[in-house]
Amino acid sequence: MTRRTAPRAAFLAAGELLAWWAVLALLWLVLISTVDTLERIVGASCAAVGAVLARTGRRAVSRR
């Protein structure tokens, strides 16, 4: 990876994580009927973990 492509790769990785997080967080909010602060924190945290795992899984499959 060259210096020119390194920021682009980091930007794409951050964008992918943000997209996964948004989808998973919205799914969490749809499945919970009433949402208080603790549920938002737990949902956002679970969505972040899921986003990292989804990106890791996608990268593992694309390397084959």
From TrEMBL:
The chain crosses the membrane at residues 9-31. Keywords: Membrane, Transmembrane, Transmembrane helix. This is Uncharacterized protein. It comes from Streptomyces canarius.
